[in-house]
Amino acid sequence: FMWYVYILECCDSSFYVGYTGNIKQRVAVHNTGRGAGYTAARLPVKLVWHEECSNKAQAVQREHQIKKWSRAKKMALVSGDFDKLHKLAKRQKT
């Protein structure tokens, strides 16, 4: 059984990050207005990115990681621009 982390683009161009065990069904639920309060106020939504995870814990961890990212970093992930994603990653100076 696979779990997924996903990014939806809302009608106002904002992003919503979530996780699920059934991505097609979850996106459909979001589009009925029953998925989350955030997306219900910004319909319709469309799936713009997803990633498979081997278990729920991994999906939850990845969701929390991506939710903390800047919009620019999420846009780089969605567009597959891994060079830009790498450049946007914050680095701790030692």
Mind explaining what this structure looks like?
The protein is an alpha+beta fold. The chain is built from five helices and three strands. It has a three-stranded antiparallel β-sheet, sandwiched between helices. α4 packs antiparallel against α5. The mean pLDDT is 94.
Précis, in short:
This protein has 94 residues and is an alpha+beta fold. Helices cover 45% and strands 22% of the residues.
Write a concise keyword list for the protein shown above.
94 residues; alpha+beta; 3-stranded antiparallel sheet; 3 strands; 45% helix; globular
Helix proportion range: 40-55%
Shape: globular
What gyration radius follows from the Cα positions, in whole Å?
Answer: 14 Å
Instruction: Indicate the structural class.
Output: alpha+beta
Mean of the pLDDT scores? 94
Question: How many strand units?
Answer: 3
Strand order of the largest sheet: 2-1-3
What's the number of helices?
Answer: 5
How much strand? 15-25%
End-to-end Cα distance, whole Å, is 41 Å
Unreliable runs: none
**Topology as a string of helices (H) and strands (E):** EEHHEHHH
| Major pleated sheet | 3 strands, antiparallel
